[in-house]
Amino acid sequence: MDCPLYKQLTSFVKTDQKELSEIIRFFEKRSIGKKEDILEMGGKCDAMYFVEKGCLYLYTVDDAGNEKTIQFAIENWWLSDVLAFRNQTRSQFGIRAALKSEVLEISYPSYQGLLANHPVMEEYFRKVYEIAFGAALMRFKFLFTHSKEDIYHHFNDNFPDFVNRVPQYLLASYLNLTPEYLSQIRKKATS
Amino acid sequence: MDCPLYKQLTSFVKTDQKELSEIIRFFEKRSIGKKEDILEMGGKCDAMYFVEKGCLYLYTVDDAGNEKTIQFAIENWWLSDVLAFRNQTRSQFGIRAALKSEVLEISYPSYQGLLANHPVMEEYFRKVYEIAFGAALMRFKFLFTHSKEDIYHHFNDNFPDFVNRVPQYLLASYLNLTPEYLSQIRKKATS
Predict the structure, then answer these.
(1) Which residues form the Cyclic nucleotide-binding domain (chains A, B) (predicted)?
(2) C-alpha distance from residue A179 to each of A25, A63, A88, A170, A183 (Å)
(3) Contact A138, A174 (CB under 8 A)
């Protein structure tokens, strides 16, 4: 079956067609329009999302009202306000579609049911979060060891596919740059 | 038994005394001196560490030779170069003891054996990494929504116990501040 989550599951853990078709019943397909919020800041974070097509991002707003992009999820990756979902508390973040997106949504009760009924999913999510946290450590390294001027070019050189998929103003925010600063850097680079 | 890892395991997952005593055999106790490296940058990352006493930190070095603190682990938490451990590649980080420390070390083959023989450890590490990644998202939020001036005070106010346990020059680096900048802020605060 041509399902991105099936493909990832079979590459991460040992399972079979019967179990895969049981696992997929815990999810619901959902379409999200470009710039549509799927979770509002301060709302109850009652779901996790697996991106099949498009791009979601997690954001927050600082005291001056500026939006800050905290995390992206492109195809084949997960997004949620992880602690709010885990603890069933109000979200510290919003989640929005950067592009028209297709996602698989899993609610909190379904997530608990999935883990209880399919222990192989403990292994799967252990690996998902291991990679997510390992990548976060690499991102701190990236942010802490490059100057503001360098960071955009280094990111561009290292992750060209990713850079091409996400709007530039969101990428600037993800690198903790203002849109104005990004615009200056890009003007310099092309002059 | 008075073992910090036992306590955490029984609070995170359902297990029993017999299994706990089997699980603990996969670990080795190790003492590390203050400022001693337990992993060198560029070395093979062949272990994960659970801190029983003291404090470890993960660091890297920028092009100008400045050390940057990427992550701390105080009592009851884990530390490793997660991606290098997972992929058995050379480490992007070093790991050093901020204070004289007692740790439980688990090697890569033992980690694999532990997970294969005790499926409950998949659930345990899924939860450990869920919390670690969720906390990393909160740290990005913290870094992106506070000015350099505010960040130290906010951190101090929110995590006083943590601030009291780690050397100030490492904390400055963890907040992406230079030691000189931290010193200026603290002088202002006390003047």
Answers:
(1) 11-115
(2) 42, 17, 34, 8, 6
(3) no
pLDDT in tens, A48-59: 999 999 999 999
- Separation in Å, CA of B63 to nearest CA in chain A: 7
- Tell me how crowded residue A50 is: count the other CB atoms within 10 A of its CB: 22
Q: What is the pLDDT confidence band of residue A164, given thresholds at 50, 70 and 90?
A: confident
3 state SS of B127: helix
* A25 shares contact with chain B (CB less than 8 Å): no
Residue A59 lies in a domain: yes
- B107 lies in which domain range? 4-118
Computed on alpha carbons and rounded to an integer, the radius of gyration of chain A in Å comes to: 18
Write out chain A residues lying below 8 Å of B39, CB-based: none
Q: Evaluate whether B52 touches B99 at the Cβ level (below 8 Å).
A: no
Residue B1 has pLDDT above 60, yes or no: no
Which CATH number belongs to the domain containing residue B21 in this structure? 2.60.120.10
> Three-class SS of residue B12?
helix
Query: Could you give the number of structural domains in chain B?
Result: 1
Tell me the shortest Cα–Cα distance from B1 to chain A, in angstroms.
Answer: 27
* pLDDT tens digits, A106-123: 999 999 999 999 999 999
Check pLDDT > 90 for residue B178. no
- Calpha distance B134→B137 (Å, rounded): 5
From the list A41, A69, A64, the residue with the least C-alpha distance to B146 is: A64
Question: Reduced to 3 states, what is the DSSP secondary structure of residue B143?
Answer: helix
Judged by CB atoms closer than 8 Å, whether chains meet at A176 and B63 is answered as no
d(CA A7, CA B25): 36
d(Cα B128, Cα B106) in Å, to the nearest integer?
15
What mean pLDDT do residues B43-53 have? 96
